[in-house]
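Researcher: Here's the sequence for the chain we discussed earlier.
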Amino acid sequence: QLQLVESGGGVVQPGGSLTLSCAASGVTLDDFAMAWFRQAPGKEREEISCISSSSKSDGSTYYTDSVKGRFTISRDNAKNMAYLQMNSLEPEDTAVYYCAADRFSLPCGALAVLPTARDLYDYWGQGTQVTVSS
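Model: Thanks. This is the structure I predict for it:
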């Protein structure tokens, strides 16, 4: 059974940076697409980025428009880790950030645009809070 644990959240000033980490255990990540979702107070959980499996799919990445150019997703299968580098943070980025994983043969970006994207992921971490405030 795959288990995911996020870390790296915290409080940062606008314009600052944070790197979130997602540590996986129980199963190797090679065949899994990895995604980052976030949920702000009073809002639905939204997918902001994902990276496909290179062995099962094409290794491609996806970013929602609001984070494109500021956030970078990456993975290290040897360490069973995924990361989200967040730069130029804005108050609107304040949310609980979740790591998710599942096995897809399609590029994860093709699934991310579906309204039911979050329902496609079976494995979730517990979330880590990111607060952007001066």
